[in-house]
Amino acid sequence: MQQDPGIGRTSPLRPLPNLIFASRWLQLPLYLGLIAAQAVYVVHFLIELWHLVEAAAGSQAGLQALVTSIGYKSDVPITSLNETIIMLVVLALIDVVMISNLLIMVIVGGYETFVSRMGLQSHPDQPEWLSHVNASVLKVKLATAIIGISSIHLLKTFINADNYSEKVLIAQTVIHIAFLFSAMAIAYTDRLMAAPSGKH
After folding, report:
1. Could you tell me if 95 and 149 are in contact, meaning their C-beta atoms sit under 8 angstroms apart?
2. 115 Cβ contact list (under 8 Å, min separation 6)
3. DSSP per-residue letters across the chain
4. 34 in Cβ contact with 51 (< 8 Å)
5. Which residues of 47-67 are buried (b: 16+ CB within 10 A; e: fewer)?
6. 88: which of 54, 70, 98, 176 fits an S-S bond (Cβ 3.0–4.6 Å)?
C-alpha cells in the first residue's frame, strides 16, 4: 500500500503566519513568573510550618507570629496554642497547598496547551489529566480548584467569625456561591459545546 506523500510533511509557514504563531513564546516569561510565585508560596508555607512547630514547643514568639498571620483575636491574652489557632493555621497551610496545585495546573497545562508540547507521554510522572487536557478541560479544572480554595477561605472565616463583621461574612458567602454557579455554568457550557461531536 503506497503511502500518501503528503503525510509526514510540513510545509513552511509564510512569514506573517510564522510570526503570529511564534508569538506564543511571549507567554514563556509569564509561566516562568508563575514558577517564581510558586517558590514564594513554598517559602511562605515553610515559615508558617516552622512557626507552628515553635509554638507547639512553647515559643511565645512563634505563637505570636501565628496569631498575627491568621488574624486571630481574643478577649483574653493568648499564651498557648489552642484548637482554634491550630485549625486556622492548618487550614492556611492547606490553602497554600491548594493554590500551589492551581499554579502547577496553570503552568503545566497552559504551557502544554498554548505554547509547546512537553513530550511527557512516556514519563512515569506525567499527570493523568495532562493526557487529555485542552482549553475547555483546563478551564473547568481551574474553576473547580478556585471553588476549593474559596471553600477553605470561607471555612477559615467561619471558624474565626468573631473577628469579622456580619457584612464580611455575608459578602464572602455570596462570592463563594458566585464562584460555584460560575463553575457550574462553565461545565454546562462545555458539555453543550461537546455534545454534537459526541453524537457522531
Report:
1. yes
2. 24, 25, 27, 28, 31
3. -PPPTTTT--PPPPHHHHHHHHGGGGGHHHHHHHHHHHHHHHHHHHHHHHHHHHHHTT-HHHHHHHHHHHT---SS---S--HHHHHHHHHHHHHHHHHHHHHHIIIIIHIIIII-----TT-TT--GGGGG--HHHHHHHHHHHHHHHHHHHHHHHHHTGGGS-HHHHHHHHHHHHHHHHHHHHHHHHHHHHHHHHHT-
4. no
5. ebeebbebbeeeeeebbebbb
6. 70
**Could you identify the residue written with the cell 510550618?**
49
**Tell me, what amino acid is at 76?**
V
For residue 21 the three cell numbers come to: 504563531
Instruction: Please give the grid coordinates belonging to residue 23.
Output: 508569538
Cell digits of residue 138: 483546563
Q: How far apart are CA 114 and CA 120, in angstroms?
A: 16
- Residue-wise pLDDT for 135-154, tens only, equals 777 777 788 888 888 888 88
For 2-51, the three-class secondary structure string (H helix, E strand, C coil) is CCCCCCCCCCCCCHHHHHHHHHHHHHHHHHHHHHHHHHHHHHHHHHHHHH
